[in-house]
């Protein structure tokens, strides 16, 4: 249970995160033990009212958040989520996972996250723009290229980042490209950013598969979520001769034991906004997704998907966490017991924030790199990070998640300790 008075999120994402911190604590060096509590609370949490005039002239109020979990190693970094289930405890957990993620990959950032409790599919484009601009204006005093840099997440995209950049810049009186990442390329965005998260899932997945001697070619892959992350991961696995046998999204679940043609599925989804109805696959129930025979599972949707019950029967040998927080701690134990390898979110999906870092660096320098340079640097960084995590897990005889947390928490808490506690 959280000991913070303002979050009541039993068994939710924040609780999952706290359990992960409890699990890493015994592995951290003695001199850092006094500082662990710093990770169990956000540094700053802002809740804002976002009123907008709807197209029909009525006024609607939405709840918005920006949480800066930790800024010890640099400016806050993390996405903005538009989803009907967004609430404070969830945004806190997502911001904390960003703190861990940026530290695992050793980016000079802290962790932050924001969101609005809204179903963006129910808004017109103009309403979405008004919502984004008002929200940006409400959080503008705590964001900035040296303070906290938002980016896309579930339900947001480059166009929304463009509106955020424009709104913030209007307030400053000059263009500030480095205030958000994941922008359109002609607005200071980076080549390769849109596909970076899915690419990172694939790159870390191939590394993990090699280590557990699972051939990618011919392996059966199931993907939950067919948005920015899931569709790119599926595409790359398909290209590497794996068989993507099952895909689930917000419209349902489709299955083909011979493997789906992902390029055609992407084209179908671009037109219809969902996977259901795609020819060349049969529709199955959402529950049946978890029973499909598979070698690799890519949860790339929302948190809290792999429960202990599902962990007991899953046939996958390798789980690649494209989503943030998809696995409950008890499920983690069960998977470990069954010898199933989990590449945790904080490394597996770090490709997005890594190219966000490259975008921020390019904006600061006003000098832009080619897509091949971006991809090369991304692959190198991800391979180095998974290598470090793997070695740490062998040295400490612990899961890859705990190993990633060991590396990250040592970095964060060393910075915390060396900075000292103000006023001293
Ligand atoms: N929303 C993404 C994540 O969860 C990207 C964050 C970023 O690029 O700052 O990692």
UniProtKB/TrEMBL annotation:
This protein's UniProt keywords: NAD, Nucleotide-binding, Oxidoreductase
Gene3D superfamilies: 1.10.8.1210, Leucine Dehydrogenase, chain A, domain 1, NAD(P)-binding Rossmann-like Domain
Record: residues binding NAD(+): 197, 228
Highest taxon of the lineage: Bacteria
Residue positions binding substrate: 77, 101, 356
Catalyzed reactions per annotation: L-glutamate + NADP(+) + H2O = 2-oxoglutarate + NH4(+) + NADPH + H(+)
Cited InterPro entries: Aminoacid_DH-like_N_sf, Glu/Leu/Phe/Val/Trp_DH, Glu/Leu/Phe/Val/Trp_DH_C, Glu/Leu/Phe/Val/Trp_DH_dimer, Glu/Leu/Phe/Val_DH_AS, Glu_DH, NAD(P)-bd_dom_sf, NAD_bind_Glu_DH
Gene Ontology molecular-function annotations: glutamate dehydrogenase (NAD+) activity; glutamate dehydrogenase (NADP+) activity; nucleotide binding
GO biological process, one term: L-glutamate catabolic process
Domain Glutamate/phenylalanine/leucine/valine/L-tryptophan dehydrogenase C-terminal intervals: 190-420
Positions of the record's site feature: Important for catalysis: 153
Active site feature: 113
Assigned protein family: Belongs to the Glu/Leu/Phe/Val dehydrogenases family.
Function noted in UniProt: Catalyzes the reversible oxidative deamination of glutamate to alpha-ketoglutarate and ammonia.
Protein name: Glutamate dehydrogenase
The species this protein was found in: Acinetobacter qingfengensis
């Amino acid at each position: 249970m959280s000991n913070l008075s303002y979050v009541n999120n039993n068994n939710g994402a924040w609780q999952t995160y706290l359990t992960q911190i409890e699990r890493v604590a015994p592995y951290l060096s003695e001199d850092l033990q006094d500082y662990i509590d710093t990770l169990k609370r956000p540094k700053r949490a802002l809740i804002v009212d976002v009123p907008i005039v709807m197209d029909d002239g009525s006024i609607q109020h939405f709840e918005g958040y920006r949480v800066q979990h930790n800024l010890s190693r640099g400016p806050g970094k993390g996405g903005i989520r538009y989803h009907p289930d967004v609430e404070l405890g969830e945004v806190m957990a997502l911001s904390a996972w960003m703190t861990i993620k940026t530290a695992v990959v050793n980016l000079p950032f802290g962790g932050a996250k924001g969101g609005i409790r809204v179903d963006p599919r129910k808004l017109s484009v103009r309403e979405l723009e008004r919502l984004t601009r008002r929200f940006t204006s409400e959080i503008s005093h705590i964001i900035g290229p040296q303070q906290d840099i938002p980016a896309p997440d579930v339900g947001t995209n480059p166009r929304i980042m463009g509106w955020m950049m424009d709104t913030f810049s209007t307030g400053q009186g000059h263009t500030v490209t480095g205030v958000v990442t994941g922008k359109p390329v002609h607005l200071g965005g980076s080549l390769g950013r849109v596909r970076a998260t899915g690419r990172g899932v694939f790159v870390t997945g191939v590394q993990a598969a090699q280590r557990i001697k699972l051939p990618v070619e011919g392996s059966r892959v199931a993907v939950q979520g067919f948005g920015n992350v899931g569709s790119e991961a599926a595409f790359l696995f398909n290209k590497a001769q794996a068989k993507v046998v099952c895909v689930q999204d917000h419209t349902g679940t489709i299955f083909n034991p011979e493997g789906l043609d992902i390029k055609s599925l992407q084209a179908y989804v671009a037109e219809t906004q969902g996977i259901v109805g795609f020819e060349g696959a049969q529709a199955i129930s959402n529950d049946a997704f978890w029973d499909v025979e598979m070698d690799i599972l890519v949860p790339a949707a929302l948190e809290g998907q792999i429960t202990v019950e599902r962990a007991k029967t899953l046939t996958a040998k390798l789980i690649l966490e494209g989503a943030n927080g998809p696995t409950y701690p008890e499920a983690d134990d069960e998977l470990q017991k069954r010898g199933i390898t989990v590449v945790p979110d904080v490394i597996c999906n770090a490709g997005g924030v890594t190219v966000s870092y490259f975008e921020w660096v390019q904006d600061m320098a006003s000098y832009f790199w080619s897509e091949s340079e971006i991809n090369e640097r991304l692959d190198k960084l991800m391979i180095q990070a998974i290598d470090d995590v793997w070695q740490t897990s062998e040295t400490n005889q612990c899961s890859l998640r705990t190993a990633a947390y060991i590396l990250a928490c040592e970095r964060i808490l060393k910075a915390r300790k060396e900075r000292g506690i103000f006023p001293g």
